[in-house]
Amino acid sequence: MKQISPEVFLVEPPIGRIGAEELAVLKTAALANPRRRARICAHPDNQDNLHEMIIAHAGRPYVRPHRHPRKSESFHMIEGRLTVVLLDDNGRVVERVAMGPAGSGRVLFYRLSACMYHTVLFEDDIAVFHEVTNGPFVPGEAEFAPWAPSDDDIEGQRRFLAGLNPARV
Fold first, then answer.
1. Does residue 20 have a pLDDT over 90?
2. If pLDDT is split at 50, 70 and 90, which confidence band does 138 have?
3. Which of 70, 75, 36, 29 is nearest to 52 (CA)?
């Protein structure tokens, strides 16, 4: 595994492998990173048509509600619990998908194939999941919800998250 940045690692092609040692490195990187997240990319570069990542989020970071035109995404839980919140164009909750690893009594896999706003509420100090989406990755292509607080609006985030899940704040 090769480190690309403080929060991005790349498995060595042509046969990518991720085991306990790599997961430990990933979680340590997420804990040390100011954005409290890190990922291992199994795809060779941003232009690949299929993007597979093992992602760790530490603490309970804010994921700004966004949507992906012309893309789908799926999560497969490895560790921890989270809830994917799907929202309509006005920011109203449409559905919640409570996720956890096998044996947790929660959904362990979800796939979103519609262009819907979504965010993630993290419920444990660390959450690790396998995400798959179609590429290529184009910076700025994700559409952030105009009604959602920006990444630097901490007070707005607190109010927004409290509205989604009062027990979380």
1. yes
2. confident
3. 75
Dist CA 82 CA 94 (whole Å): 17
Domain span at residue 91?
A: 2-168
Q: Which H/E stretch holds residue 48?
A: none
* Residues near 98 by beta carbon (within 8 Å), at least 6 away in sequence: 81, 83, 106, 107
Query: Domain holding 94: CATH number?
Result: 2.60.120.10
Cis (ω within 30 of 0) for the bond into 136? yes
pLDDT per residue over 148-163, tens digit each?
999 999 999 999 998 8
Q: Which amino acid is at 128?
A: V
Contact 24, 106 (CB under 8 A): no
Which residue in 48, 4, 46 sits closest to 26, CA to CA?
4
Q: Tally the domains of the chain.
A: 1
